[in-house]
Amino acid sequence: MSDQIKFIVDNLNKEPFRKNYNLITFDSLEPMQLLQVLNDVLAEIDPKQVVDIREEMPEQTAKRMLSLLGILKYKPPGNATDMSTFRQGLVIGSKPVIYPVLHWLLQRTNELKKRAYLARFLIKLEVPSEFLQDETVADTNKQYEELMEAFKTLHKECEQLKTSGFSTAEIRRDISAMEEEKDQLIKRVERLKKRVETVQNHQRMLKIARQLRVEKEREEFLAQQKQEQKNQLFHAVQRLQRVQNQLKSMRHAAADAKPESFMKRLEEEIKFNFYMVTEKFPKELESKKKELHFLQKVVSEPAMGHSDLLELESKINEVNTQINQLIEKKMMRNEPIEGKLSLYKQQASIISRKKEAKAEELQEAKEKLANLEREVSVKTNQTREFDGTEVLKGDEFKRYVSKLRSKSTVFKKKHQIIAEFKAEFGLLQRTEELLKQRHENIQHQLQTIEEKKGISGYSYTQEELERVSALKTEVDEMKGRTLDNMSEMVKKLNSLVSEKKSALAPVIKELRQLRQKCQVSKFDLLYFCILSCSDVLEVRGLREECLQEESRYHYTNCMIKNLEIQLRRATDEMKAYVSSDQQEKRKAIREQYTKNIAEQENLGKKLREKQKAVRESHGPNMKQAKMWRDFEQLMECKKQCFLKQQSQTPMGQVIREGGEDRLVL
């Protein structure tokens, strides 16, 4: 109790109370003063409680404090009788009642402030049902509930923002960055507007672009709807498959089973369900209720200190000693009837535990079977999506397995044949290598024999002669075939020429007659030409105007197509530039030009560096080139001198002996 009072006095002396109490002065406070202190603490939690209790009736004070403590979820210790004493103590200002309340309030002031603030908006006003029959009252109540739900969501978002770690400085920086980005975008839009205003029919193009954007948004909305419908269809197909599987299993069970076995299975299932409903589930529900009651009791109790824990431990030890004493007394009695009953009780408890364990195993097996069926349906859907084929079942799978076995036997036979062929191929390859080696040895021996006899190369020459003779025979055969082909071609050409001459003979006769008629009618043609010249001049002028209009039409059509292409390029460029995809941004013309500019700048930088290196090495290189030219001239001079000297000296001496001339070098 002294620790409790010390804690209360310390907190009352701090902000925002500043009471300047000590233990003696606080303990000597009168009941009215103590109630005023409690009211001040409640006023700090809820500002509506700022009241001078001297100007208020005691019943109203107690009612107001009790309602606030109920909102704050304060639960006084004890049962219903203790609640009446608690109310009386609160009215008269009893210290054993006020001190725990002050201690509980001062321990969690911030939490209680938040709870009191939320209570102003979240405590629902209960409207009688007879008033809700009125439509206006019902609509107002519904609107009130919607506003309450909206307040809950907004408060959660506010708390999340408070705990998210965002500081005001970061938010301000983000806002300033967004404003700068907004200004840049406005400037960019203005530049684009000025650039677009120079283009002809820009209003029409902007209208078309706006329509295009609307259609794209509509296309995205339709694509989203399509995806949602696909998902709904997928779920519906899954449900249909599950129902079909259940129907198949039920039909299979109904077809294979007799009525007696079916009834027996139903009876077992009914017994199992009856056991689960009457024994297992009520026990579990009762245990959960006890656990919930215990947890609620733990939550409702105030925070426990070290002394309270020691007291609880001592109580637990006392109860354990009493239980041990009772067990010892029971064992000392050792009544035989109770021993037999305990044996039966043990057997019954063992059987009930086994029953519960088997029921749990059966429940787990059913859940596992349901999960496996769901996995099978998912896998079948996946296989159907991948290759579009159905999963084989039952007899189809057996036929597939038998077919696969026959194919595997055929495969084994073929594989064995291939292995035999490979072994034979290896053997033949080895014999080929041996024969080649033997042939090389024989050739080597033949060359040595030819060298000994003085006719080296005889065998090679003979092989070459045979090869050349074979080639000559092939060439002769080809010449004969080409001559035959040429003679046949000449015959065909002669026949074609004769056919064309015979076909053109009547045409040539008609042509001669027409030439004679043409010479007679030249005068008439000139006369008609002179008459038609006047009409031709008018037609020519109209034809020129028609050509000019047609060329103007084609020119305007080409200009329209060019403008459409430019508009398409501009929209694609804007789409690629605004897109968040890096691949699309790389396709933009601006990105390509910036990339080309960067590449050209790098190339120019490299060329400037190369130019600088060339300038630095220009002088030494020119000097070295001059030295090489001088060296070349010197060597050329030496060469000329050597050749001149060689031409002046005699190449040799002619000696005549015995009627013969000899040249001595």
Q: What is the tally of beta strands?
A: 2
User: Count of helices?
Assistant: 18
Low-pLDDT parts are none
- Mean pLDDT figure: 79
CATH top level of the domain at 1-123 is Mainly Alpha
Overall spatial form: elongated
Terminus-to-terminus distance:
145 Å
Judged by helices, strands and strand pairing, the structural class is mainly alpha
CATH topology of the domain at 1-123: Actin-binding Protein, T-fimbrin, domain 1
The CATH architecture classification of the domain at 1-123 is Orthogonal Bundle
| Element pattern in H and E | HHHHHHHHHHHHHHHHHHEE
Please tell me how large the radius of gyration is. Answer: 57 Å
Please give the largest β-sheet.
2 strands, antiparallel
Estimate percent helicity. over 70%
Give the full name of the CATH homologous superfamily of the domain at 1-123.
Intraflagellar transport protein 81, N-terminal domain
